[in-house]
Amino acid sequence: MLRDNEPSKPPAFVAAAKEAALSALVAFGLFVTLIGVRTDQGPTGALVIATRFGPLAAIVAAVFVAAFIRALVFRDATVISLGRLVPPRVTAVVSGLAGYAAIAFLVVALVVPVLAYTNRYYLDLAILIATYTMLGFGLNIVVGLAGLLDLGYVAFYAVGAYSYALIAQNFGLSFWICLPLAGILAAFAGLLLGFPVLRLRGDYLAIVTLGFGEIIRLILLNWQDLTGGPNGISGIPRPSFFGLPFTAGENGFAATFGLKYSATHRVVFLYYLILALALATNWFTLRLRRLPIGRAWEALREDEIACRALGVNTTTTKLTAFALGAMFGGFAGAFFATRQGFISPESFAFGESALVLAIVVLGGMGSQLGVAVAATVMLGGFELFREFAQYRMLVFGAAMVAIVIYRPRGLVSTRTPSVFLTEGKVIPAAIVQAARTETPA
Q1: Does residue 222 register a pLDDT over 70?
Q2: Do the beta carbons of residue 197 and residue 205 sit within 8 Å?
Q3: Would you say residue 265 lies in a domain?
């Protein structure tokens, strides 16, 4: 019972309506200049004001309804838990199938060329997803395992691409020889970045890595005698199937295997090539996690001071993380160069680093499967909303905000332990008694 001097609370319906109205007002202020009122080029070339109050009203109404339902249904919860909306039986079934997700993902990746052989668009999209998945695997070593925020990862991508292009053109070496050389040079660039940032952490580390990425881009843009400057490098040699070019001649791939010549053969080969590189990167990373260096990375990520107290050489640990992550970025850059046949500094802007970092963070830091899922969802989602160019970034931004709020640890937040016991071990009672005796009370 309320006291006489205690004000009564308004009904839940009225409170929810007030909160929804406030949210709708904020949405109106944000989108009125983005969607409701815009400037377009008129027939004479002058700018004219174009109004689109219909879509603006629809967005504001959607925000009002969503905020009203949230305030009315979840008024006692500070954070909405999506798990409350899923029945326990469905959750148990999904948890049981989670172990087979990686196998299913791999099977789908292997049969993509078979399903989309006649559609060049989907093949190119699959190659793009596999390329960014490999970049995500490489950055996951630096960010997900070692906990070092790297905003300039695109620099190693660029070093690998330009290294492959210059070596292949100037020395006439094949793709299979230039690929490891590009990775080695990218790893050397990772060491160059690692030495100045050994004492940096957090925001300062992010700023330095961001500056390193811009330095590499400016070098590529201004060193015209070597890199071609803004004109880039064209005529980069294409890869061959162990010496068999994908041409219509008698010595080509199709003629050797008795197949009818098709330009799609080269695209399918490129897809399986980048898929093999991505799987090799994934396998290598999983093996490294179980080695002492992998456990040192995870210790460094959790607490650098405690890591030093345990006798771990943090200098070597950081340098190896930067070098190995850069090496895989260099491999992906070499593939990008041979696939495109042309590279320029515009292909290695900061947006590429931001996209790869978003893939790692949203997929789940340290989760290999999460990186693959996030790359597929993000790049596939971009293409899915390509026809809605005006609203694509709006939907993409809202999806990212929802993931950060409701899945703060990423789409795939669970990870396989680095070290675990395969079988139980019995500790003799004498050892337990001796430990209790020696331990002070």
Answers
A1: yes
A2: yes
A3: yes
